[in-house]
């Protein structure tokens, strides 16, 4: 009964094209945001903020980035980890070299730098597609991680190869990076930042440029015939995607872990983000969030569940069973629901609309 | 691709090696790289080639599956690990390695059939990219499964292959070329495996059916070739190839998780050689192996070392820009 659209008439194109055309959706999202902004920091424990909500927000951003490239433009990339490393190390070098620049500007600049790197590694996509491209992006993954690991310049010659985020204030008195920031401040900063970027992504994918990406994804030859420039579409997808992934890498290093080495962005990180968008839903911004939540929560739930059943279980065994479940889930989702959790959510909404009548 | 092309490629390898050697000698003389001796150079090349054969061994499994079903099987690396783990596990139970090998081969066939049933059959007619992602899922599952069953510690796999260093051609080079006996035997095994596969494809009924399916699924179906059986067979053969690769790699490095990641090195080999060509997989492996070692030993030290982590991928990526189908691959006419 709650989810009924009767009486909601759209009288203008703007109303018809709006982000949330149904009033319940709009209010639901606003309420959720308000809850996340005001209630959560008061209710949630420090553990909850630090090890669930903050990584969830960071991963969501990475998933949005990869979703733009893979879900919207159809270019499979296994180089996500490398691009995240780019963002992290660019942000570190920038903020060390120019401490007076505001931290938000630093993040955006490192995103832009990553976008440039993304374009460089996206050039092969002009001639190759599919899994050939996936292998080419592995070059980015291995090369970038190697570079940040080998050259001391990136870590300011720290002997361990670890970068530690210096404390930076977003508004005077509120430190959001490094180890000195409070979890609440970090969480709120990330919430605002990620929400704004997600809004940007959502608007990008439903604008002209997003439609060119989807045309390339659905059938590149047809897209070229109707006048879409494949070069521009693919490279812009690589650029925008790397922009988001780079920022998420910077946020990972600055807000989530505080200090990070290049090896944290190994190939497994790429797979992790890829799993998020497959499980969450390819070609869906909402799906990126759902997938990120799922992948962040599942290991915690699994290890807690297994420890509850058998307290003597070894950590390694838990990790291996996690691997198995992840692999099985990927196959399961690809077979049963290729559009992921986002599609399930849509189905649920369709059902709610008609409830309690079947049709 | 015919015999003449292969001959030209094989013959051109020594010429290219010599040319690169002179180039390196020149660089050393100009002081750009640290040192150069011909003995060391050839030693590096030879060891690289032997290493490359090991890459080819993994790449073969990819090629088999890609040829027959158009699926790019990312999970081949985890098959390698799973095969090696199972074999070590069985040997630790006290079985002779030959019995363990036969049993493990049986397990690999079962795994192959399970993959065909559970994953491939429901995904028939899906885009290639979806199938590729499904194999990433299989990769994770098999990794976890193997290690859950057999534990994750590094295990020693010893089937009696000697590991002594041996010296080749002591008359020609000062002191001879130092190679590992194990690598030579591994290369011989790989050669034997390729020969067996070639005979199997060329002269048996099943082999002909496999080639027919590779050429055209629908045409093969319409003349009564059972597609699903063929897929099960191909995945089984790929599983057994993976097992052989696992034994070789496991014998060399010990059976551990990194085996699955080393198998990723087979991907650039494939790109270089072309996805559909068995000779391509071998020559690609040789080029990648030798190129990687030369780059690491003569150039790598100048820019920080450990460049073999990415050199193969970079080489493959640059190569793709100029010849997307690889050395021996089928030419893709569509270009976007």
Please describe the topology of this protein.
The complex is a heterodimer of chains A (359) and B (336).
Chain A: H1 13-16, H2 23-43, H3 46-72, H4 80-97, H5 103-122, H6 130-150, E1 162-164, E2 169-171, E3 174-175, H7 183-205, H8 208-218, H9 220-225, H10 230-257, E4 259-261, H11 267-280, H12 285-309, H13 315-336, H14 340-354
Antiparallel strand pairs in A: 1-4, 2-3
Helix pairs in contact in A: 2-7, 3-7, 3-8, 3-10, 3-11, 3-12, 4-5, 4-6, 4-10, 5-10, 8-10, 11-12, 12-13, 12-14
Chain B: H1 3-29, H2 38-69, H3 76-92, H4 97-120, H5 128-150, E1 165-168, E2 177-180, H6 181-203, H7 205-215, H8 217-222, H9 227-253, H10 258-262, H11 266-273, H12 278-299, H13 311-322
Antiparallel strand pairs in B: 1-2
Helix pairs in contact in B: 2-6, 2-7, 2-9, 2-11, 2-12, 3-4, 3-5, 3-9, 4-9, 6-7, 6-9, 7-9, 11-12, 11-13
Task: Describe what this molecule looks like in 3D.
The complex is a heterodimer of chains A (359) and B (336). Chain A contains 14 helices and four strands. With 359 residues, chain A is mainly alpha-helical. In chain A, strand 2 and strand 3 form a beta hairpin. The longest helix of chain A has 28 residues, at 230-257. By secondary structure, chain B is an all-alpha fold. In chain B, 71% of the residues lie in helices and 2% in strands. A two-stranded antiparallel sheet of chain B has the order 1-2. The interface between A and B is large, with 48 and 49 residues.
Short description:
In chain A, helix 4 packs across helix 10 (230-257) and helix 11 packs across helix 12 (285-309). Chain A has helices at residues 13-16, 23-43, 46-72, 80-97, 103-122, 130-150, 183-205, 208-218, 220-225, 230-257, 267-280, 285-309, 315-336, 340-354, and strands at residues 162-164, 169-171, 174-175, 259-261.
């Amino acid at each position: 009964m709650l989810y009924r659209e009767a009486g909601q008439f759209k009288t203008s194109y703007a109303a018809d094209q709006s982000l949330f055309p149904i009033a319940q959706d709009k209010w639901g999202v606003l309420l959720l945001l308000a809850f996340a902004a005001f209630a959560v920091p008061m209710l949630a424990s420090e553990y909850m903020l630090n090890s669930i909500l903050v990584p969830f927000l960071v991963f969501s951003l990475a998933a949005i980035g990869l979703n733009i490239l893979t879900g919207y433009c159809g270019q499979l990339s296994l180089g996500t980890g490398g691009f995240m490393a780019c963002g992290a190390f660019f942000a570190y070098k920038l903020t060390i070299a120019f401490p007076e620049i505001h931290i938000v500007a630093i993040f955006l600049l490192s995103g832009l730098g990553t976008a440039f790197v993304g374009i460089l590694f996206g050039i092969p996509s002009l001639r190759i597609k599919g899994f050939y491209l996936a292998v080419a992006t592995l070059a980015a993954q291995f090369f970038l991680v190697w570079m940040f690991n080998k050259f001391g310049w990136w870590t300011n010659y720290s002997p361990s190869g670890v970068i530690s985020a210096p404390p930076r204030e977003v508004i005077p008195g509120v430190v959001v990076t490094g180890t000195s920031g409070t979890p609440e401040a970090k969480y709120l900063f990330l919430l605002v930042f990620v929400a704004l970027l997600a809004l940007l992504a959502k608007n990008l994918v439903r604008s002209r440029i997003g439609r060119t990406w989807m045309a390339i994804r659905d059938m590149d030859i047809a897209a070229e015939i109707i006048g879409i420039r494949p070069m521009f579409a693919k490279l812009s997808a690589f650029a925008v995607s790397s922009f988001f992934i780079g920022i998420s890498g910077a946020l990972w290093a600055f807000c989530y872990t505080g200090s990070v080495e290049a090896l944290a962005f190994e190939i497994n990180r790429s797979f992790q983000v890829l799993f998020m968008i497959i499980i969450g839903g390819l070609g869906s911004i909402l799906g990126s969030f759902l997938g990120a939540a799922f992948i962040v929560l599942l290991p915690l739930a699994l290890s807690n569940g297994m420890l509850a059943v058998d307290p003597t279980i070894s950590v390694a065994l838990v990790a291996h069973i996690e691997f198995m479940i992840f692999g099985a889930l990927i196959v399961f989702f690809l077979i049963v629901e290729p559009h992921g959790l986002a599609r399930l959510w849509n189905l649920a909404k369709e059902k709610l609309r008609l409830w309690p009548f079947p049709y | 691709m015919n015999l003449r092309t292969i001959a030209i490629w094989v013959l051109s390898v020594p010429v290219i090696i010599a040319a690169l050697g002179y180039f390196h000698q020149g660089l050393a003389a100009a002081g750009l790289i640290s040192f150069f001796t011909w003995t060391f150079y050839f030693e590096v090349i030879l060891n690289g080639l032997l290493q490359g054969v090991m890459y080819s061994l993994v790449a073969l499994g990819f090629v088999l599956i890609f040829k027959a079903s158009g699926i790019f099987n990312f999970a081949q690396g985890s098959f390698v690990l799973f095969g090696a783990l199972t074999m070590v596990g069985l040997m630790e139970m006290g079985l002779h390695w030959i019995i363990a090998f036969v049993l493990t081969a049986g397990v690999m066939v079962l795994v192959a059939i399970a993959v065909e049933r559970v994953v491939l059959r429901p995904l028939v007619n899906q885009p290639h990219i979806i199938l590729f992602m499904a194999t990433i899922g299989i990769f994770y599952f098999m990794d976890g499964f193997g290690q859950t069953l057999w534990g994750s510690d590094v295990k020693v796999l010893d089937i009696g292959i000697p590991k002594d260093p041996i010296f080749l051609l002591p008359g020609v080079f000062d002191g001879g070329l130092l190679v590992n006996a194990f690598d030579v035997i591994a290369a011989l095994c790989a050669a034997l495996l390729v020969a067996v596969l070639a005979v199997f494809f060329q002269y048996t009924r099943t082999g002909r059916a496999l080639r027919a399916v590779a050429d055209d699924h629908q045409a093969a179906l319409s003349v009564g070739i059972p597609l699903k059986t063929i897929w099960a067979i191909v995945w089984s053969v790929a599983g057994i190839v993976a097992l052989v690769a696992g034994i070789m790699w496991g014998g060399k490095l010990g059976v551990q998780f990194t085996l699955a990641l080393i198998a990723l090195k087979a991907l650039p080999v494939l790109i270089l050689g072309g996805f559909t060509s068995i000779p391509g997989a071998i020559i690609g492996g040789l080029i990648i192996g030798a190129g990687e070692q030369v780059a690491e030993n003569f150039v790598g030290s100048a820019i920080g070392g450990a460049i073999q982590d990415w050199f193969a991928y970079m080489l493959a990526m640059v190569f793709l820009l100029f010849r997307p189908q690889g050395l021996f691959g089928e030419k893709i006419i569509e270009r976007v």
